[in-house]
Amino acid sequence: xxxxxxxxxxxxxxxxxxxxxxxxxxxxxxxxxxxxxxxxxxxxxxxxxxxxxxxxxxxxxxxxxxxxxxxxxxxxxxxxxxxxxxxxxxxxxxxxxxxxxxxxxxxxxxxxxxxxxxxxxxxxxxxxxxxxxxxxxxxxxxxxxxxxxxxxxxxxxxxxxxxxxxxxxxxxxxxxxxxxxxxxxxxxxxxxxxxxxxxxxxxxxxxxxxxxxxxxxxxxxxxxxxx
Length: 227
Ligand SMILES: Nc1ncnc2c1ncn2[C@@H]1O[C@H](COP(=O)(O)OP(=O)(O)O)[C@@H](O)[C@H]1O
Ligand SMILES: [Mg+2]
Description:
Elements: E1 7-18, E2 23-34, E3 38-42, H1 49-56, E4 64-69, H2 77-87, E5 88-91, H3 103-113, H4 118-131, H5 147-159, E6 165-169, H6 177-194, E7 197-202, H7 205-209, E8 213-218, E9 221-225
Parallel strand pairs: 3-7, 3-8, 5-6, 6-7
Antiparallel strand pairs: 1-2, 1-4, 8-9
The structure holds adenosine-5'-diphosphate and magnesium ion.
The site of adenosine-5'-diphosphate has 12 residues, from strand 2 and helix 1.
């Protein structure tokens, strides 16, 4: 089947090991991600899902192989900075927000990093938080809101600079079932409605099965699972 949507991320023959090669995590893996796709990286704990997301996001570098994300090379320092500020958003299992700042203050951080004018940043913050139903929480400190709310704020933060690719590392992993569904639903909507490519690392089958594609991560290899 041909697909006309733009390829946003390419992983080509990438290998990654830790501990001076003693722990081989990814062996010669390749992957393409297109605009608007919701792709599950599905595998057991320790299979290498986070490792692959970190390579895509330029948080770590591969031993071998090539990476391209939005036309930039996450292995290269100067590309990495542009990528993180402009083109990709990262959502972690534990939100990684600044707990004693308010929701609004947390969301201003990425806007400040790229020099967004104040009024435009405030407008974006209002629009995003309204969309996830948290506009009434802007002045609340992160430590005072619930886990599900924090994770929705973390997604807003990742979206502040309008990324084309969202990397989500077990974003529902610390949430109860109902709250997890809501966060997953938001990721689905971002892919389907906004055309953002979303790569979701998860060990949960039910979430993987609701994605557009499932890429199984096992024994250092990636394999496409067809329904
Ligand atoms: N910085 C590191 N140093 C050494 N080993 C690591 C490091 N990061 C991950 N690993 C190991 O690599 C393997 C894959 O880890 P990870 O990518 O975090 O898996 P997953 O996200 O699928 O649970 C695990 O065996 C883990 O212990
Ligand atoms: Mg992980």
